[in-house]
Amino acid sequence: MLGATNNAGHGWLYLQAVLEAAGVPASQVTPEVIGDLRATHAERNLWEVAGTDVPAALERLRAQGLRLAVVSNSDGRLQQLLDATDLARWFDLSVDSHDVGSRKPDPRLFTTS
User: Are 28 and 60 within one domain?
Assistant: First the structure.
């Protein structure tokens, strides 16, 4: 099903799953609510908070000598988000699908350098 949708479609599917898990029927979510979420997301990315344990986990991985990369189906703001969350310093490479013109799971995304 995901292969048949775009990023906006993925977001709706994710929102439906979150609402279902929270016990809120999707029918109670009005187009106005969805519109508000989209407007807020366009202004300030809704996915810009990293868990408090993330930096320590990344530090442990780097301490093991691992090189780290992040590959994201982002909208051109991946580097900005990594910088804003102070996570960019942990990654040797970051790939934003918007910047390379293909998205996961398309293999071309993983062959871009």
Answer: no
